[in-house]
Amino acid sequence: MTSFLVRRVVGALVILIFISLITFYLFYAVPRDPARAFCGKICPPETLELVRHNLGMDKPLFVQYWLWLSAIFVGRDFTQFGPCPAPCLGYSFATQEPVFSTIVDRFPVTLSLTLGASVVILSFGILTGMLAAWKVGQPLDKIASSSSVIGASLQIYFIGPLVVFLLVDTLGLLPRPSYVPFTEDPLTWFVHLLIPWVVLSIIFTANYTRMTRSQMLEQLAEDYVRTARAKGMSGRSVFFRFAWRGAMIPIITIFGVDLATLLGGAIITEQTFTLHGIGELAVRAVLNTDLPMLLGVTVVGAAAIVILNIVVDVLYAFIDPRVRLN
């Protein structure tokens, strides 16, 4: 287990460095000048050169990247802003605020959106898929399969405003979606995020329903399941004690990627409901040519994907005894 984790952590660091390097290079490949974006529309040439010097943009590209990378571990002293303690991701060109603290401030919004939607996705998606596999060919199976196709065909930017119009503006059953910190008022936090959770989970739930159903049917056709039935075990015991464990392996793999993607920023959902999370922060960074913020969000999203993939690999051994980490 220890050697496995060490190998994965080292590999994760290499991947993160590679992703940050690619993002850093691609940003400078665009024709827009980052220093001009920081300086503003009306910026004299001498002021523009001073800004480039203060931000370190007059140095070679590799030196700029090395300064950015080393600042994560040891910090950096900016002429324009002053000292930036580790972990330092620089200062935003648009707001002149520290990138790391801005991401930390936005992270609870995205985390709340992700965790709530994940509970809905796993609860309804896996349960509905298992029931469809249990009643394969029966009306329940047909209803679940048809509903999953419809759900997968919908789009968040369409059903989001529609649900808000029906439940908030027309019926007045729920308040308009917004973010209230969980530590201040848990009930208000839950009620105000209920609509985004449901809307975000509709598409994912449909996919997990279909995936769970197909995986369960595949596992029920395996030799070890037929052997268990031949030994006299009931269909219910075989279904819930054996088949579901094998079916969960690919589902956990996909869920790890989906969860990491949501943590990296549910961009469409946050834009639809005006939730100021990491996804909305990424959009603004792209529009404003905000290199430090764009790099920070990219690295955070990539780190979430890499870390959760490691967690998924470790979970394999606990769910399926046929899997060994070594």
TrEMBL record:
Transmembrane segments: 9-28, 115-137, 149-168, 188-208, 242-268, 293-319
Top-rank taxon: Bacteria
Keyword tags: Cell membrane, Membrane, Transmembrane, Transmembrane helix, Transport
Compartment(s) where it occurs, according to its Swiss-Prot or TrEMBL record: Cell membrane
GO biological process per UniProt: transmembrane transport
ABC transmembrane type-1 domain location: 107-316
One GO location term (cellular component): plasma membrane
Membrane topology: Multi-pass membrane protein
PANTHER family documented for this protein: DIPEPTIDE TRANSPORT SYSTEM PERMEASE PROTEIN DPPB-RELATED (PTHR43163)
The family this protein is said to belong to: Belongs to the binding-protein-dependent transport system permease family.
Protein name, as recorded: ABC transporter permease
Organism of this sequence: Planotetraspora thailandica
Phylogenetic classification of the source organism: Bacteria, Bacillati, Actinomycetota, Actinomycetes, Streptosporangiales
